[in-house]
Amino acid sequence: MMSEPPGKRTRTRHRLVTNALDLFEAQGFDDTTVAQITARARVSEMTFFRYFASKEMVVLDDPHDPVIAESVVAQPATLPPLVRVARGLRAAFAQVDEPEDLTTRRRVRVVAGSPALRAGMVRSNAATEAAIADALIADGVAPLPARVAAASVLAALTCALLEWATTQDGTTLADAVTTALDTVEVTSA
């Protein structure tokens, strides 16, 4: 089977996300079907599932766990675990391209408005939390402090994302994340 050229693949993914978000915002996440998304995007359901394992992944997909874990471990081992995780997340955030503000805001706003998706976000964060904690533990941090640091910083990051997506005060995503990480670092010093 031949794969699509990168440009077409990117355009198809973007079309699926945009149409899905339009429908989620208009009629709600739970009342939107994959069939409606694919019809509106003019692709088959099979094509949808080449890009996303489920409807939830349109808004919950986050491929950054390895970058985050590596960035945390790269922080000096002499730092307290909480500061190490906060600084690692800050470094990881600096390594990835700034997400499309409007699309990211729409995705997070859809998540904020759906109890099922907020639960999915928690499950997704659990994988990131485990990756961070495991990296710290492998680097010599005791298991409980490693897990507490990972959970605390991810809770702050989640709070920042949800606040940023649901308010229109002009705060950028980078500003919201910086405020959350600054808060964690200040309270741990």
UniProtKB/TrEMBL annotation:
It holds the Pfam family TetR_N. Residues 10-70 form the HTH tetR-type domain. It comes from the Bacteria. Keywords: DNA-binding, Transcription, Transcription regulation. PROSITE patterns: HTH_TETR_2. Transmembrane segments: none annotated. InterPro entries: Homeodomain-like_sf, HTH-type_TetR-like_transc_reg, HTH_TetR, MftR_C. Residues 33-52 bind DNA. PANTHER family: HTH-TYPE TRANSCRIPTIONAL REGULATOR RUTR (PTHR30055), MYCOFACTOCIN BIOSYNTHESIS TRANSCRIPTIONAL REGULATOR MFTR-RELATED (PTHR30055:SF238). This is TetR family transcriptional regulator. It comes from Polymorphospora lycopeni.
